[in-house]
Amino acid sequence: FMAKSQLFRQIAPEGYAVIPAEGKAGSRLREMIPDDVQVHTYGVEISGDSVAKDVKYFRNGTSFIWEIKGQEHEVIIPWIGVFNLENALAGLTAAVACGVEISLLVDLIGRAPGVPGRMQRVGEDEMFTILVDYAHTEDALKNVLEALQPLREKSVKTLIGCGGNRDKGKRPFMARVACELSDEVIFTSDNPRDEDPAAILAEMVAGVEFHQNYQVIEDRKEAIAELVENAVRGDILLIAGKGHEDYQEIRGVKHAFSDVEVVRDLLKGERM
Fold first, then answer.
1. pLDDT single digits (tens) 166-183
2. Of 78, 55, 57, whose CA–CA distance to 149 is shortest?
3. What is the mean pLDDT of residues 156-167?
4. Of 165, 173, 217, 263, most Cβ neighbours within 10 A?
5. In this predicted model, what pLDDT tens digit does every residue of 110-135 receive, in sequence order?
6. Nearest to residue 244, comparing CAs of 133, 166, 158?
């Protein structure tokens, strides 16, 4: 927070600051912003200068009524999850503050491309939904899985691993979050680096001793295949941890590997 707040401390006179309308972070930022800076607030289903109301989440996007400058506009964005909605709203609000026409923004954001590896939908199969996301911390994984709950028709199935040579303490907690917010979970390898993949997985499993809804498949390609090939109509499949990465780091060597490409090959029937 302190690092990001430096951006707001340095805004030039008569500049603009866009901050959350509610919450601790927004309140703290407001106190730091110079008096000669215009502050614009945004929020979801609350009061503010720029507000998203009547929010509806779908598997392929989010719709809402955008209230700004006393007017209401119907907006559809091609992303899901409240965090994506908040980010979009912050961007829209900043653009309006800088003088961009609202009608243009409404049109453009509806056609904006998603960020690779961030709740990225792979394939157009209508039977089930496959999402690839970079979530590799307990909090990030929790946010993603909570965003998926309102969209479930049947099961939420999650594939997750933990990187080697990184924070070991998060491993059991990430595993626990996955099991608590998913119907089925696969623990697998994710950039083991210089550590033994089996040892990393054992530390994850230690956090879910009271859960029975998981399995361990060390090879990531095999794990993804297990997840995809056993999906049924209505399932939501989340492949988390690597997102946009196009490698798997093992013993100092980066091997070509992309979750997205592995899924696409599977959907085309190209089993490893």
1. 999 999 999 999 999 999
2. 57
3. 96
4. 263
5. 999 888 999 999 987 678 999 999 99
6. 133
Can you give the pLDDT at residue 272? Answer: 44
* Parallel/antiparallel/unpaired status of strands 236-240 and 129-133: parallel
Give the residue from 56, 13, 50 showing the smallest Cα distance to 35.
Answer: 13
Residue 86 pLDDT greater than 50, yes or no: yes
| Amino acid in the structure at residue 226 | E
The total of other beta-carbon atoms located within 10 Å of residue 171's CB is 23
pLDDT surpassing 90 at residue 13: no
Output the pLDDT for position 127. Answer: 87
